[in-house]
């Protein structure tokens, strides 16, 4: 969930800007097994700012050809995707990942960067983090490394590094680059506004909540149910997490159960009511008998 394994990053050096944007969005929404429910072309077009649905289809095909994902179509324009090789933090023997749940990665500023600039930003964030906030490398070795990774000239790498100066302090001493991460608000965790009994408040938006809200939106969209409250998609995603172990213990498929109950809900009304749905779900699971 918003964790990009370093070993996966190393495979992204040949991606285009749009391919990189779509792939990182998959990482944002994946569960611990790398599964992304219901990648819908309209949603990705809106979130990532491209205008052609054919672009989305082309990117899916290209990412599959590069063995970064597999997918199957659910309905027209709606795909279930599995990100390959990007294990969750808990399943890595030696955890080495980049946390993408930062405001920068959801910003237009990042989406508009060249693909190699995105790669370099993420790579420098990791390398400075594992070295106490600063990366020290001989200038010649720095260029040799990225010439090999990107297949471009030193001049182009200098242009990429110039873009990085907004996020890193870059100095040269005795033939070495000293690259220090600057941080700042762009690298803080995103925030969300919630409406509670005591009024409206703002809190940090965890990667877990984003993934659960995304799943809730997909489930509601597939049954053409309209939200009654803004929080309903997140609350639905939380119910999936709450009941999935019990449903599996019953030998049933989690998503099939939720689709069935949502379909029954949709037959009664098109406006989703989380409390009513919760009662219907417990009835189906035989928990209120």
Describe this structure in words.
- The chain is an alpha+beta fold and 289 residues long.
- The chain folds into three domains: 3-101, Orthogonal Bundle (Arc Repressor Mutant, subunit A), CATH 1.10.10; 109-186, Arc Repressor Mutant, subunit A, CATH 1.10.10; 191-284, no CATH class.
- It has twelve helices and twelve strands.
- It has helices spanning 6-9, 17-29, 41-48, 53-65, 108-111, 115-129, 139-150, 154-164, 207-222, 232-249, 254-268, 274-284; strands at 3-5, 35-40, 69-75, 78-83, 97-99, 134-138, 168-173, 176-181, 191-196, 199-204, 226-227, 271-272.
- The chain has a three-stranded antiparallel sheet.
- A hairpin with a 2-residue loop joins β9 (191-196) and β10 (199-204).
- The longest helix is centred in the last third of the chain and has 18 residues, at 232-249.
- It is elongated and about 75 Å long.
- The model has no long low-confidence stretch (mean pLDDT 92).
What is the structure about, briefly put?
With 289 residues, the chain is an alpha+beta fold.
């Amino acid at each position: 969930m918003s964790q990009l394994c370093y070993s996966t990053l190393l495979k992204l050096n040949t991606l285009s800007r749009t391919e990189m944007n779509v792939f990182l969005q998959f990482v944002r929404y994946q569960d611990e097994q790398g599964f992304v429910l219901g990648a819908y072309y309209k949603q990705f077009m809106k979130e990532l700012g491209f205008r052609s649905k054919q672009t989305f289809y082309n990117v899916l095909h290209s990412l599959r050809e590069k063995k970064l994902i597999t997918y199957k179509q659910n309905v027209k324009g709606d795909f279930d995707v599995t990100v390959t090789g990007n294990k969750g933090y808990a399943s890595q023997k030696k955890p080495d990942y980049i946390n993408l749940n930062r405001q920068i990665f959801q910003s237009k500023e990042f989406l508009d960067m060249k693909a190699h600039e995105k790669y370099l930003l993420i790579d420098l964030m990791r390398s400075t983090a594992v070295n106490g906030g600063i990366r020290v490398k001989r200038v010649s070795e720095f260029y040799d490394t990225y010439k090999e990774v990107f297949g471009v000239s030193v001049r182009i790498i200098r242009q990429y590094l110039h873009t990085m100066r907004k996020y890193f302090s870059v100095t040269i001493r005795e033939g070495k680059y000293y690259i220090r991460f600057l941080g700042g608000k762009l690298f803080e965790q995103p925030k969300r506004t919630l409406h509670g009994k005591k009024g409206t408040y703002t809190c940090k938006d965890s990667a877990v909540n984003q993934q659960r809200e995304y799943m809730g939106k997909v489930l509601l969209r597939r049954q053409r149910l309209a939200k009654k409250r803004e929080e309903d998609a997140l609350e639905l995603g939380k119910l999936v997490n709450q009941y999935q172990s019990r449903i599996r213990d019953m030998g049933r498929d989690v998503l099939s159960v939720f689709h069935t109950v949502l379909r029954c809900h949709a037959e009664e009304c098109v406006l989703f009511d989380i409390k009513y749905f919760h009662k219907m779900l417990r009835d189906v699971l035989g928990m209120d008998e």
